[in-house]
Design brief:
This protein is mostly beta strands. It has 1 helix and 6 strands, in the order αββββββ. It has one helix spanning 4-19; strands spanning 21-31, 38-52, 68-73, 83-86, 89-99, 107-113. It has a 6-stranded antiparallel barrel with strand order 1-2-3-6-5-4. The termini are far apart. The mean pLDDT is 91.
């Protein structure tokens, strides 16, 4: 029998897949020698839900007017050095807030900026 966190994770995954759209999580891979590495961008297709920040959250420095919030399911583990590609635009990841009760990642809320 699965626990409540597994059920919450499965529900989040289903909702993001149902209501989200395709996007890409872009990571940088370095290969070769340290002094002259070959840098390659690797795109992994993911489902994302986009939302905006509330007006009272925008302060002009930590959260800017054009920042976006992307929600991704807990089966994907983003990091701050990755980017999100959505509709031909590439967003830098500014911050990641994880909903993670216990050891189970349910969903990640990503603040992204062009």
């Amino acid at each position: 029998m699965s626990n409540i966190y597994d059920r919450a994770s499965n529900t989040a995954e289903k909702m993001v897949n149902k209501y989200g759209r395709s996007g890409y999580l872009v990571s940088i891979v370095k290969s070769g020698v340290d002094y002259d590495p070959t840098i390659t961008e690797v795109e992994t297709e993911i489902k994302i839900l986009e939302s905006r920040f509330f007006t009272n959250e925008i302060d002009g420095s930590l959260i800017k007017l054009d920042d976006k919030r992307f929600l991704i399911a807990g089966s994907i583990i983003p990091s701050i050095d990755m980017k999100i590609k959505d509709g031909g635009k590439k967003y830098s990841i500014i911050s990641i807030i994880e909903t993670k009760p216990g050891n189970k990642l349910i969903i990640s809320k990503i603040q992204a900026r062009l």
